[in-house]
Queue: 3 jobs
Job 1
Amino acid sequence: PLAMKPQVVFVLGGPGAGKGTQCAKIVENYSYTHLSAGDLLRAERGREGSESGQLIDSYIKEGKIVPVEITINLLRKAMEETMKQDKEKFRFLIDGFPRNQDNLQGWTTVMDSKADVKFVLFFDCCNQVCIDRCLERGKDSGRTDDNKESLQKRIQTYLQSTRPIIELYEKQGKVRTVDASRDVDEVFADVKGILDKEGE
Ligand code: UP5
Ligand code: MG
C-alpha cells in the first residue's frame, strides 16, 4: 500500500507549560511519535561537526527563535527517518513549533504539501506557573535557559511571537485548549478527551 501522508498535531504553550510531559503520556497511550523542536535543536547544538551549533546555543540562551531553515530541516529529517523505519508511524506530535511567523512560513513552504496539520493542542498556563516550573526544573536540568534572565526572555518571545500564531489557528477553528496549570493527571485527562474525540 501507499505510504500514509504524515498527520501532524502541533503542540504549543509557554515555556514549562508541560508540552514535553504531556507528549510523553500521549505516546504511552496513543500511536503518535513525539518530536520536540527544542530537543532536536539541542541535539543539533551538541552534534560534532554541526555548522549551526553556536548559533543555536546563543539563540536558546537568549530565548530567541532559531531561523526556520535549521528547525524545519531537523523536523523533516526526523519525520522521514521515523516513517522509513516503520510505515505505521505516520502520526506526529510536533512539540514547540511553529513559534513565530518565520516558522509558519517555513512549514508552509517545505511541508504543506507533505503533511496534514490536524489541529493545535494548546497548553494554556499562566506565566508565573510556567516560570516557577522551569526554575524548579533548572535546579538539575542542565538547560542553559532555565534561569531567571533567560526565562524573562522566553516568556517575552512567547507572548510577542507565539501567541499570535496560536490566535491565527484559533481563527481557523483548529485550536484545542487545555488548562495546563493543574496537576499532570488532570491535564492528561483533558488531553485524552480531546484525542479520543478527534478519532484515534
Ligand atoms: N511539569 C510539567 N507539567 C506539570 C504539571 N502539570 N504540574 C506541575 N509540574 C509540571 O515541563 C516543565 C517542568 O514542569 C518539568 O520539570 C515538569 O516536570 C514540570 P515540560 O513538560 O518540560 O514543559 P515544556 O512545555 O515542554 O517546557 P519547555 O521548557 O520544554 O518549553 P519551551 O517551549 O520553553 O522549550 P523548547 O525546548 O520547546 O524550546 C527551547 C528553546 O529552543 C526556545 O526558547 C527557542 O530558543 C528554541 N526553539 C526554537 O528556536 N525553535 C523551535 O521551533 C523550538 C525551540
Ligand atoms: Mg519541552
Job 2
Amino acid sequence: MTTLGLLGAMDEEIALLLADMESKETLLHSGITFTKGILYGKEVVVCKSGVGKVNAAVTTQVLIDRFEVSAILFTGVAGAADPELNIGDIVISSSCQQHDMDVTALGFPKGVIPFQEVSDFPADRTLVKLAEAACGRICKDHKFIVGRVLSGDQFVADHAVVKSLNDTLGGACVEMEGAAVAQVSHLNNVPYVVLRSMSDKADGTANVNFAEFTVEASRRSYEILRDILEHW
Ligand code: ADE
C-alpha cells in the first residue's frame, strides 16, 4: 500500500485530519511529530511542519526519506493575491514559487533561483485534477481556481505589496510554505499539490481577518482533502 504525506503548517490546518485518523502511531523526527495511520481507508502520514520555508523543507524531506511517501498534499490557509478571490475561496497550486527569492541586484528576475533550471515548481497534474474534481463536488458557495502559489518567509499584510506580487509574479495567493514543499518534492521526483483556502486578502486588514477566519478556512481546505482521499 502506498503512503500519502499530508501536511499543514499550523495546528488548525491538521487538527481535523488527526481527529479522523485511525490506528495512529506518532514518531518524532527532526523535532517534528509525524502521525502515521489510516485515513478514509488510505495509509497516511500527517504532520505539522511549523511556519515558514525551512520548516516545510525539512518536513517534506523527512516525509520522503523516512516515510517513503508516494505523494505530498499540503492543506492550509493563504492570503488572496488575485483580486477576484475572496475569503473562503480556494487555490489549487498549478505551481509554487518563492516570492522572496530576490537576486535582482545581480540581474536575475525576481523569484528566480540563480543557476537553477526551475524556480516555479509545477504541481502534479493528476493531483491537481483530483483536487479540481473534489472542489467541483464540494465548493458550493466559494470559488476555486488553479493558480500559482507564492511563498515567502513573511506574512503579507499590505495592499501595495500583494498587488505587486500579483502583477509581477502572477500569484493567485501568498503563503509561507508551498514553494519549499514544491522544491523538495521536485528534487526528489515526488508528486505534490498545495491546497489553500483564503483566510485574508494579504492587505491592511490581513492580521484581523487571519485571526478571525483561519479556523473556518482550514476546515474548507480539510474538506477538499478529505474528498480527494475518499475518491482516490
Ligand atoms: N497565510 C495566510 N495569510 C497569509 C498572508 N497574508 N501572508 C502570508 N501567509 C499567509
Job 3
Amino acid sequence: MNTPPVKRIAIYGSTGSIGTQALEVIAAHPDLFSVEVLTCNGNDELLVEQALKFCPNIVVITDDSKYMKVKDALAATDTKVFAGAAALEEVAAMDVYDLMLAAIVGYAGLKPTLAAIRAGKAIALANKETLVVAGDIVMQAALEHRVPVIPVDSEHSAIFQCLVGEARNPIEKVILTASGGPFLGRKTNYLVNVKREHALQHPNWNMGAKISVDSATLMNKGLEMIEAKWLFNLKPEQIQVLIHPQSVVHSMVQFEDGSIKAQMGLPDMKLPIQYALAFPNRVRNAFPRCDFRKFNTLNFDEPDYRTFRNLTLAIDALKKGGNLPCVLNAANEIAVWAFLKNKLGFLEMTDVIEETMQKVPFIERPNIEEYYASDGEARHLAADLIKL
Ligand code: NAD
Ligand code: MG
C-alpha cells in the first residue's frame, strides 16, 4: 500500500486553544504531518517551547519587542525567526508548507489567511472572523485559486462531514446547534451583573477568552451563521439555530427529501481539528468515545433571542449583508476586549455593537479596502462609545 506523503502544516495562532490542541493531534501522527510554521501574538515562552519540540522551519511572533528573546532561545536550532504582523502575510505566501491551520483569533487572522489562499495553500479554518468580515472575497479567492477551505469550527465541520458524498444534492437547510453557553436560561436581571470570571466558564468546551465570551452572549452562534452562509453558500433563511445543551449533535443538514443527517460525538475540538488536517481521510485515534447510554435525553430548543440580543444583531447583519457583518465583528471585538478588562458590563456589549452598526455608513458591495476601512471605523466608534 502507498503511504500518503507527509502533509506540511503551518499553524497560525499555535499558542492558543485550537493551536495547542492541533499540536497534540500532530504529535500523535508524525507519519502524517510535519510542523513547518508556528506563529503567535506575544506568548514567546510557549512559542519557543513548541519550536524546540516540533522543529519548524519558521516561527513568527507578531509582537516584535519579543523578537530577540525568541531569536536567542532558538539560536542553536535551524528554525528561522520573524516578527511583526507583516511577516505573518509574507510567511503565509512562502513555499514551505501545504496547509495552513488558521487559528488566530479575530480580524487579525484575515490578512494572513487571504495571503495563504492567494498562494494556493489549503486552509483548515478555525478563524471564523475571517469569513464574517469578508466572506465573499475570501471564498471567491479560494475558488479562483482552487483552494479547499475545510472548516474546523465543530458545527461547520459537522455540516461538512454530512455533505461528503452529497455534492449533487442541494441543501434544504442546516441546523446549527448551540450549547447555549454558561448563561442558558438566565434573564436580563441576572446577566446585568455577570463578570468576566462567570463568562469564561463554559459548560462543555474549554476555549480562548474571546470565543468564550462570544459563547456566553450567543454572538458566537451569530458569527457561525454568517460563517455557514459563506462556507456552504446558503441563504439566511436556510440556517436555523437550535439550543442543544448536551453538545453531542454538532450540527445537521436537511436535504430536499426531508432527510436529515447529523454528525455526533463528544464535545472535543481535537476531532474536527484532526478531520480538517487529515481530510479526506479519517485517522484512528484514542479520543474518548461517545456512549449514548450516558445521555438519557438530547434536548433541542429555540434560542432566547430577546435576552441574548447579540444573536439578533448578528442575524440582522447576516440578512442585510454588505459591510454590516464586518462592522458587527469589529464592534464586538472591541466590546469583548473592554468586557474582559472590566471596562464594560455584559449587557452593555450589545448596546455598543448596536450603536456602532447604526453609525458606520452602509456599503452594499465593499471591496477589500472598504472592508479594512469599515473595520477601522467601527473600532474607533466602539472605543469612543466605551470611552476607552
Ligand atoms: P486563543 O485566544 O486561545 O488563541 C489565539 C491565538 O491567536 C494565539 O496563538 C494568539 O497568540 C494568536 N493571536 C491573537 N491575537 C493575534 C494578533 N493580533 N496577531 C497575531 N496572532 C494573534 O483563541 P482560540 O480559542 O484558539 O480561537 C482561535 C480561533 O478559532 C477563533 O477565531 C475562534 O473563534 C475559533 N474557534 C475556536 C474554538 C475553540 O474551541 N477554542 C472552537 C471553534 C472555533
Ligand atoms: Mg463552534
